Amino acid sequence: xxxxxxxxxxxxxxxxxxxxxxxxxxxxxxxxxxxxxxxxxxxxxxxxxxxxxxxxxxxxxxxxxxxxxxxxxxxxxxxxxxxxxxxxxxxxxxxxxxxxxxxxxxxxxxxxxxxxxxxxxxxxxxxxxxxxxxxxxxx
Amino acid sequence: xxxxxxxxxxxxxxxxxxxxxxxxxxxxxxxxxxxxxxxxxxxxxxxxxxxxxxxxxxxxxxxxxxxxxxxxxxxxxxxxxxxxxxxxxxxxxxxxxxxxxxxxxxxxxxxxxxxxxxxxxxxxxxxxxxxxxxxxxxx
Amino acid sequence: xxxxxxxxxxxxxxxxxxxxxxxxxxxxxxxxxxxxxxxxxxxxxxxxxxxxxxxxxxxxxxxxxxxxxxxxxxxxxxxxxxxxxxxxxxxxxxxxxxxxxxxxxxxxxxxxxxxxxxxxxxxxxxxxxxxxxxxxxxx
Lengths: 139, 139, 139
Description:
Chains A, B, C: This is PPC domain-containing protein. By secondary structure, chain A is mostly beta strands.
């Protein structure tokens, strides 16, 4: 296990714009406040969603698409630098009108309403290729 | 996307009372510490629950009721002022004895045990009617 | 409801080691930084998992085992002292290659990749036996 102590330089709450992309909105907040490392949690609802599942044998992501309104029952993630761009690694738990739940790595989703809390850290987190998992990981 | 920098004035951990209402307990904590804006995460278990699903076409909430013991696998939300009262907007992921999961906007639930972490912000968050979504949103 | 104001002494981000145990890694972080009270959120993926469901009638935990790769769509928990050892009370939401979700109290799981944010509090949290729920609770 690798770890690092972090210093929080600022924290924010944000309300995401209806019709925009959930993850792009979070990255836009990170860009606006020049956050090269941050941690966030969020909740809300989306009009559709694309989750990605990582196949640990093939070491590839596969998309799972949902074309219906869903609650964002929970969302947690972080901002780091990936190839010099700010990337919001975003996991989410979604639920439909019967309370049935779908969850995973959120690639994209159209915002209905979204409330985000973000803490920005002083020192950047940078993702690099990890040979074991074939994922881009930080630390 | 609208956002605001926030200053944390204090943070708390709380243990919710068995038999009380999950959301009312969080609002009671907010009242006790005079939090007009806060962010929380939580975990625990409940004896029953009522989730609300927001129908984005009808712009109305519909209840989904569960009359059985459930784990609170995760819970995230925030405190703001709604019509001058403190309101804990609470989303939760619940699970039963087979690990099957239900999730969404938590209206009420009877606490079995609950552990909460809350950060209180200096400046109030106030909910106002949003014409696009017909929800009460802040910022 | 019992609550306590807490002072954060430090905060950390951690990357969990592939092949190690998810909860043991979090407890190892707590040991390394001498955290007798902390709050964390996390995300990632695991190679297998054992969830525990608490039967509120029998007041006993029952295991639910998963022998397949799963995303950790969300994870929230806290560190406290239980019989003088640091214990990471860990809840998680897991999902498979169809987005189907399983959730609850996470006893153990083999890390594929894991990203954790932990806030360490100054004053220890100590778990003691609670007669009503037969759980070890703090405060």
